Amino acid sequence: MGLAHKLPQADWTRRADLAALVAALGAEQVRWVGGAVRDTLLGSAVKDIDAATSHEPAEVVSRLEAVGIRTIPTGIDHGTVTALLADGPIEVTTLRHDVSTDGRRATVAFATEWRADAARRDFTINALYVHPDTLEIDDWFGGLDDLAAQRVRFIGDARERIREDHLRILRYYRFQARFGSELDADAEKACAELAPMLKGLSRERVAMELLNLLALPDPGDTVARMFERGVLPVVLPECGPEQVAALRALIGEERRQGAEPAALRRLAALLPADPRAAEQVAARLRLSSAQKKRLVTDAGRTETPGDPRPLAYRLGREPAVDRLLLAGASLAPLDGWDIPELPLKGGEIVARGISAGPEVARILRAVEDRWVAEGFPGRERVDALLDEELAN
Q1: How much is the pTM?
Q2: pLDDT (tens digit, 9 = 90+) per residue, 279-315?
Q3: Rounded to whole angstroms, how far apart are CA atoms 180 and 173?
Q4: Secondary structure element (H or E) that encloses residue 138, with its range
Q5: What is the rounded CA–CA span in Å between residue 216 and residue 222?
Q6: Side-chain half-sphere of 79: how many Cα atoms within 13 Å?
Q7: Domains and CATH numbers, the chain
Q8: Are 305 and 297 in contact (CB under 8 A)?
């Protein structure tokens, strides 16, 4: 059963600030396109709203600023201007067609036809254009039927689309994991055949797509298919069958314990339990310092992570949760528990007659170790522990 050829009314379609933008540009020169259209049709939450327009960027800026709408030239060389509206920014992009592509970037020229702009997009479900006043949908490539069938299909020839932008291989799998149930045989074959092209992409783009995929509710089947078809080994050669199985187990454990998905935790599952390997992957994918630290900490996991509360005290709550879930251990001991702070400072030890320096640090560490081992008792017990250490 196909979807209606008219977009249902949604909160975002009723926004007064969007109506002002449309009035400034002209309803016949604007179409809503992309994720907002697709997600509205699916009844999903809408995050970003994108508009296509037949106006060139300078004209967009002129018309919007004439009615008091500020703009930022976020991608003006490629036709994109961000309109700063009261209820959130909107990207407005001039109709385009590709002049040349090399798999990593495209040279574009401005176009005047909606269909020409749609033809350069990746998947049929992302090429649905909506009139801002009538909400009528233009669908030139069968996107509505594909959306209804939960099928992710490239526009035109899959291999040609991938050669234009190699990242579309990873985007295909991400969209398939999010929206798809029925596999498109041609898309699957094309991604497997052209997977080596992923080596030429910037590491940041690969990391972004991989983490976005892993953040989805259940990417297990998709990741397994990527591995089996030789796609995942191109971007993550450290991953083997055991790691794919570990990801499936982790996703099951997250669901069983009601834990929110975490892309970095899941990436750790796809790597051996080896901090050095995690460091290499973090460097290759150009992860941030914080992301690297979490990935390396997760890679230091063991099959028996130990008592959850001391683990959380030593590592922090987030890494402790990661390690527990990766090991299939219960998070229950951490529910409603705030990580305490040792109620003892080095200055107090100095005040007891110990000269500032290594000996103070040793005593403080010894008291802390015993305090943690005893389950974080109160100040009175900490004072007793200090007395015992000073007496030794």
Answers
A1: 0.90
A2: 999 999 999 999 999 999 999 999 999 999 999 999 9
A3: 9
A4: strand 137-138
A5: 11
A6: 21
A7: 1-149 (3.30.460.10), 346-391 (no CATH)
A8: no
